[in-house]
Design goal:
single chain; mainly beta; IPT_dom; signal; IPT/TIG domain-containing protein
C-alpha cells in the first residue's frame, strides 16, 4: 500500500511539473541570433540581423515613454531592414518583433539626432516679403515644413527643391530658415527678408557743382529733387524735377525710348537693360552699348560696341562678398563697407545714387539705365568709404583720394553724405548730401 501511494505521489508531481513548464515557455521566438545595432540616427536605414524573419511579422520601435511605432520593415530570411521614422525622438528604444498576439524583444538601440536630409542646398541671400521663392536642394519631401521666424510657410515640393511664399506680415529682418520634418528640424541657413521698394525721389544738396549750375537748371538754390512715377507694371514712367530737368519713357515691347533724347534701351524678360544707344563720348556720334551681368545678377559692365575692352567709355564694376568693391569709367573708384546700413535690394546701387549729379552731368545715359533696371542685384550694404583715382592739381600726378561716406536709413529714406569738398576732382565727382526716398511696392 505504501508503495502504491508513493507511485501515485510521483505521478502527480510529474504531471504538475509538466503543466508548469508548458505555461512558462510560451510561444517560441521565431528569430534566432538577432543582432540589433547599438545606435542609429533618426532617418537612417537600419538592418536587424538574424535568422527566421518572415512575411507576416512586424517590427516595432518601443520608446521608454510614448507610443511604439511600426517600422514597416522589409523582412528577409536573414534580417529586417527599415528606416527610422522622423516621428521618433532621440533616446533609447526597444526593438520588438510581433506576430499575431505574440511579441518578443530582440534588443535595444539608442536613437541619435537625424542628419540634415537635404543635399546640394542653396538658399537665396534675400527674400522679398510677399514673394514666392525657391529653396533648391535634393531631399525635400511632401509634408516638409519651412519655418522663418515664427511663421510656418506653405511648401510645394518641386524637382529641384521646394517653393515657399514669404508672408506679407513678416517683418523686415534677417532670419534663420528651418526645415521641419515630423519631430526633427534643421537650420538650413540665414536669409534676409526685405520689403520690396522703388525709388520715389532723389534730393541732392551741398554740392559745389550743383550750386554753380543751379540757375542753368531752373533752380533758385543748389537743391535738386528728382521725382519718379511708375506704370502699373512697375516700369519707370517719368522723372520730373523741381527745375528744368525731366525725362519721359515710352515702351514698345522690350524697347524703351526717351522723349527728346537720343537714348533707347532694350530690356530682357527680367526687366534688365541688356543694350542701349546713346552718343560716343569722344565723337558725339551714335553709339551702341552692351550691358552684361554675372551669374548672381550683378551688373558688371556696360561696353561700347566696337571699342576696346579697356576703352575709357566702358563702365566696369566688381563685386566682392556681395558688395560693390570697385568700378572703372576711365578712372577707378574702390569701396569698403562696415556693414552697418543695409541697401534696398533690387533698386539702385547707393554709391551711384550718391553721385547722381555727377552722372547727370557726364553720363546721364548710364544713370537713366540704372533707374530703368529691374530685378538687378545690388550691394548688401551701403559703402562707408571710397578710394578714388584723382589728380594732384599742383604736380599733375595721379593720386588716390580717400573719402568717408556717412549714411542712415529711417522712415523709408536713405541719407548718404560724403565728407570733404570732392571725391575726385579729376572725375568731376563732388562731395554732397543725397536723400533717397523709397516707396513700398
Amino acid at each position: 500500500m505504501k508503495k502504491l501511494i508513493s507511485i501515485m505521489l510521483m505521478l502527480c508531481a510529474f504531471i504538475t511539473f509538466s503543466a508548469c513548464s508548458s505555461d512558462d515557455d510560451g510561444p517560441t521566438n521565431p528569430v534566432s541570433n538577432a543582432v540589433v545595432p547599438t545606435s542609429a540616427k533618426i532617418g537612417a536605414e537600419v538592418t536587424v540581423q538574424g535568422s527566421g524573419f518572415a512575411a507576416g511579422q512586424t517590427l516595432y520601435l518601443q520608446p521608454e515613454q510614448g507610443t511604439e511605432v511600426n517600422t514597416n520593415a522589409k523582412m528577409t530570411s536573414n534580417g529586417a531592414t527599415f528606416t527610422i521614422p522622423y516621428t521618433m525622438t532621440e533616446g533609447k528604444v526597444n526593438v520588438v518583433l510581433k506576430t499575431g498576439n505574440d511579441s518578443w524583444t530582440l534588443g535595444s538601440m539608442t536613437l541619435l539626432a537625424a542628419d540634415n536630409p537635404i543635399s546640394t542646398l542653396s538658399l537665396p541671400g534675400e527674400m522679398g516679403i510677399g514673394e514666392e521663392v525657391t529653396l533648391t536642394g535634393i531631399g525635400f519631401a511632401q509634408g516638409d515644413e519651412i519655418v522663418v521666424g515664427d511663421k510656418k510657410l506653405e511648401t510645394t515640393v518641386t524637382t529641384d527643391g521646394v517653393k515657399v511664399t514669404i508672408p506679407a506680415d513678416l517683418a523686415e529682418d534677417e532670419y534663420a530658415v528651418y526645415l521641419v520634418r515630423s519631430n526633427a528640424s534643421w537650420e538650413l541657413g540665414k536669409v534676409y527678408a526685405f520689403q520690396k521698394r522703388q525709388v520715389e525721389s532723389i534730393t541732392i544738396s551741398d554740392n559745389a557743382a550743383l550750386n554753380m549750375y543751379a540757375p542753368n537748371l531752373g533752380l533758385t538754390e543748389g537743391v535738386l529733387t528728382l521725382n519718379m512715377s511708375y506704370n502699373e507694371d512697375g516700369t519707370l514712367k517719368e522723372i520730373t524735377s523741381n527745375g528744368s530737368l525731366g525725362w519721359v519713357f515710352n515702351y514698345n515691347g522690350k524697347t524703351v525710348s526717351v522723349e527728346n533724347n537720343p537714348y533707347t534701351y532694350t530690356l530682357d524678360d527680367q526687366g534688365r537693360v541688356i543694350s542701349s544707344t546713346g552718343m560716343d563720348m569722344m565723337t558725339g556720334e551714335k553709339a551702341t552699348y552692351t550691358w552684361s551681368y554675372d551669374a548672381n545678377g550683378y551688373l558688371t559692365s556696360v561696353k561700347q560696341v566696337g571699342a576696346a575692352d579697356d576703352a575709357d567709355v566702358n563702365f566696369l564694376s566688381t563685386y566682392t562678398d556681395g558688395n560693390l568693391s570697385a568700378y572703372t569709367l576711365s578712372l577707378t573708384n574702390e569701396f569698403t563697407t562696415n556693414k552697418s546700413i543695409r541697401t534696398c535690394p533690387n533698386t539702385v546701387e547707393p554709391y551711384y545714387l550718391l553721385n547722381t549729379f555727377s552722372w547727370l552731368m557726364s553720363r546721364d545715359d548710364l544713370f537713366l539705365g540704372f533707374l530703368l533696371n529691374r530685378n538687378v542685384k545690388v550691394s548688401t550694404y551701403v559703402p562707408n568709404q571710397v578710394v578714388a583715382d584723382d589728380q594732384d592739381m599742383e604736380t599733375g600726378e595721379m593720386i588716390k583720394a580717400t573719402t568717408g561716406i556717412e549714411s542712415s536709413f529711417e522712415n523709408n529714406a536713405l541719407t548718404i553724405q560724403s565728407t570733404g569738398a570732392a571725391i575726385s576732382q579729376a572725375q568731376g565727382i563732388y562731395a554732397n548730401k543725397v536723400v533717397v526716398k523709397y516707396k513700398n511696392k
